[in-house]
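Protein in question quoted for reference:
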Amino acid sequence: MRSRKGALAFLLTAWTLLSLPAAAQVFYPGSVDQKKAEEGAKIPKYDPHDLSGIWRSAGPRVPQPKDPRIGDAHPTPLMGGAPPPPMTPWAQEIFDSRKPSAAESWQSRRVAPAQGNDPVGNCDPLGYPRNLGGTFEIVQTPTEFVQLFDQGRQIREVWTDGRKIPEDDVDPRWYGWATARWEGDSLIIDSFGYDERTWLDGNGWPHSENMKLHEVIRHPDATTLEITMTLDDPKAYTKTWVGNKQTYHLVLPKEQAVMYEYYCVPSEEQTFNEGVRNPAGGDLQHSRPLK
C-alpha cells in the first residue's frame, strides 16, 4: 500500500471537526510539521479510561530469534516480536503454500507480487492483528470503541456495553467479534471469529476461524498506550502464543492530528507492482515503467 498524498482527506470524527477553529492547522503523524508542533503541544488531561486519539507505534520492534522456518530474522510488530510456537500440520501446510511479497515480509520468503499470493495484493482487508503494527485512531463512545487503522482505512469494533456474542451463532469477520470490560485501569478485550483468509503478518503466519485473542490495554500516562496480546488457536499452533508488550505514543497536538489516507486502490496497487515491486523482485515479465 502506498500513500497518495495528493488525494489526502481529513478524516477526523465529526465532533472533532466541529471543535476546531476554522483556520486551525492539521498535522499528519510523523510529518515534519507534526514533530515541530508536538514540541510545544499541550499534554491532554490524563484519564486512564480515555483511550481516544491517534496512536503511533513507539518501537523499536523486537528482533525475533533465528527461525529455521524462515531462515532470516528481523524486527516484526506481530505479537510484539514474540516468536510463534510450533505449528500443527494443518497450519504448516498453509504456511508453506503462502508466497509473501509485501515489504514487511522476510527476505527468505519474499517474491515479486506477480508470483505471490498475499491477499494484500488484491486489496483484501489486512485483518487483525496484522494491522496493529502501524498507526491507528481510537474513537470511544459509552458503548464501544472503534479502531481506525491507517493502512487501508479499515475499522475494528470493540463493544464495551456488556453484551455477549454467541460463538456458535455468528459468521467469521475480517476483524472478528470483540467485547471488552474494564478491570481497574486495564481494558480487557476478548475476541474470536476471525476470517482465516487473513494472514497474521506479511510472512504468512496462519490462523483458523477458531483463533481467540486476549488483549490487555493500559494507558499508564497521558501519552502512552500499552497492548499485550495472547493468541490461542489449537488448530494452528501447538501452544498458546504469548506476545510481548507493544507500546504506542499519542500523536500531538491531539485535537489537530489527522491520519493519512492509505486506501488500497486496486488499480494503483497493480500499477505500482508492475513499475516498482515486480522489477525489484526480478520479475521483468510482469513489469513495465511507471508513467
